Amino acid sequence: MSKEYILKTENLGIDFGGLTAVNNLNLKIEKNQIYGLIGPNGAGKTTVFNLLTKVYEPTRGKVIIDGQSTEKMDLVAVNKLGIARTFQNIRLFKELSVLDNVKVGLHNQKEYSLVSAIFRLPKFGSAEKEIESEAMELLDVLGLKEFADFKAKNLPYGKQRKLEIARALATHPKILLLDEPAAGMNPAETAELLDTVKFIRDHFQIAILLIEHDMKFVMGLCEKITVLNFGEVLAYGDPDDIKNNPEVIAAYLGSDE
Amino acid sequence: MEKMKQLFKKNNKNQALSFLLVIVMYVAIEALLKTGNLKSLYTSMLVPVCCYCIVALALNLVVGVSGELSLGHAGFMSIGAFTGVIVSGYLSNFIGSQMVCFAIAVVCGAIMAAIFGFVISIPVLKLEGDYLAIVTLAFGQIIKTLVNNIYLGYDQAGFHFSFVKNTIELQSGGKMFISGPVGATGTTITSNFTAGVIMILITLIIIYNFMNSRQGRAVMAARDDKIAAQSVGLDIVKTKTMVFVLSAALAGAAGVLYGLNFSTLVPSKFDFNTSILVLVYVVLGGLGNMFGTLISTIVLVMLPQLLRALNDYRMLIYAVLLIVIMIATNNKTIRDMITGVFNRKKAEGEGE
Ligand SMILES: Nc1ncnc2c1ncn2[C@@H]1O[C@H](COP(=O)(O)OP(=O)(O)OP(=O)(O)O)[C@@H](O)[C@H]1O
Ligand SMILES: [Mg+2]
């Protein structure tokens, strides 16, 4: 049986000098799947995201997105292929408004030329109208509509994380990577985020790969989970397998979680 | 009402103020000119002020909006100025209307500067770091030296060109456009204050339209966070090149305005000092703040003239004032005081 995988890695790995940060990683993520990547601090989770999105060039192995190998591609090209992400250490366009942050995400979706922009040709007006309404829709999905005119840097921390999700969605990805989306949120906000992530998957029909330390969040959301430890896969399975896996429990107890 | 509020959102406020400033200044100065109340000392400054306003706005596009440093914008002015002198001198043989000659010269100067801007930005903007500053610094020097060695004349037989040494012998009725270090001489003056103001307004429209477009947003995004910008699919090299070329073109157009305002123009006018002066106007006016740039340029270009009476101490006082202004505009308490005054005014306005 051959399944359609939206994202696959083959023996993916990277070394930083003498340190092997990720090794022998074989992920298989299906269309519309919500997939968890967990592990103790320093396990290499964020590094995996950086490999998938070509912030880092892998030392070994391959990444295949929607059937296409990303060898020789850069950050921009893999985004165009259908992968978008958020960052653990939030990277917003600080000086731009919340709305403009999302509009930047729509850059390649609704285009017009520099000439249309400078001379305000009709193309500019119609495209900008569509950009504005789609950006507002995305802000609405993440509950940020009333903050549209705020400068991104003036948003509270939790809302900044949500804005990163809206901006990533604006690029019309086939798979969305979330790096600790619930970090710094209180339990009520986390519960709300859980519903939002589910809604995003159902509404946009995309796969979601997420890193998260909040176990309730991960177990309540993910259909499949891979556990990393010291850059190697420690376990793989559905939430129940992972919860009861003694090695996983030991790894987490061993760390300072 | 909601529409009105939309119109005066922060970005738009800056925009409205800029246009208002230029138009009010124009009307006031025209009134003074008509009634003969403006000293000739200041009259001669009008076109240069317009020119520097345009260059400063253009440079702010690179420094403030795209976050790259250029130390050679005088080079683009130079290219524009001498291209303008040649084009307008040549066209005046066939076209009667000075205005048409001038307009064509401005377009040609802008295009020429844009071409140079494109060529030097290709290798540079691909690199990480402040290479643009280094390369534009060198570019400014190279252009100055280059123009210093160009001899170009025109007569019935067509254009005559020589490099380093003047070997041109023109037939009677011919005219030298550029004579090496002496520069352009005998230029017919076709620039004027009105043309300068119109060019500032066009520059403002171009810049604001750019900043409020998808290309403008992309450039500002890349400035704020490069990795994040690339992760949403922005081609950073392309957007930065676009801004730099646009800025070069505007600086070139400003150069034409300047060049056609004087019957003689030496190449050394557009040296490193000029580039740095314009950078000072930009930094003082505020990065990305076009209204601030207009104010600081007007004040700082006029200041040395106002201080003329002080003779030898002129540049000393200028420098001290510059430092005081820098400190004042960067000091939080003083800034809060100034914005406090503005906010009170606004609050009163809303009370009506
Ligand atoms: N650019 C880099 N250069 C050198 N070492 C790096 C680099 N990036 C990551 N590492 C190392 O790789 C290892 C994995 O880091 P990574 O950030 O991927 O961990 P993580 O699983 O995301 O941890 P956390 O839960 O704390 O976010 C760490 O030991 C880290 O120090
Ligand atoms: Mg991490």
Q: Which key features would you list for this structure?
A:
heterodimer, A: alpha/beta, Rossmann fold, six-stranded mixed β-sheet, five-stranded antiparallel β-sheet, 10 helices, 11 strands, 39% helix, 23% strand, B: 352 residues, mainly alpha, 2 domains, three-stranded antiparallel β-sheet, 3 strands, disordered N terminus, disordered C terminus, binds adenosine-5'-triphosphate, binds magnesium ion
Provide an overview of this structure.
The complex is a heterodimer of chains A (257) and B (352). Chain A is 39% helix and 23% strand. The model of chain A has no long low-confidence stretch (mean pLDDT 93). The N and C termini of chain A lie far apart (40 Å). Chain A has 257 residues and is of the alpha/beta class. In chain A, strand 1 (5-16) and strand 2 form a beta hairpin. Chain A has helices at 45-52, 75-81, 98-105, 114-118, 122-141, 157-170, 187-204, 215-221, 239-243, 246-254, and strands at 5-16, 19-25, 28-30, 34-38, 60-65, 68-69, 83-85, 175-179, 207-211, 224-229, 232-237. Chain A folds into 2 domains: 1-82 and 172-257, Rossmann fold; 92-170, no CATH class. In chain A, the strands form 2 sheets. Chain A has a 6-stranded mixed β-sheet, with helices on both faces. In chain A, strands 1, 2, 3, 5 and 6 form a 5-stranded antiparallel β-sheet that branches. The radius of gyration of chain A is 19 Å and the shape is globular. Chain B folds into 2 domains: 47-291, no CATH class; 307-352, no CATH class. Chain B has a 3-stranded antiparallel β-sheet with strand order 2-1-3. In chain B, a hairpin with a 2-residue loop joins strand 1 and strand 2. In chain B, 43% of the residues are buried. The model of chain B is unreliable at 1-8 and 345-352 (pLDDT under 50). Chains A and B meet through helix 2, helix 3, helix 4, helix 5 and helix 6 of A and helix 8, helix 9 and helix 10 of B. The complex binds adenosine-5'-triphosphate (ATP) and magnesium ion.
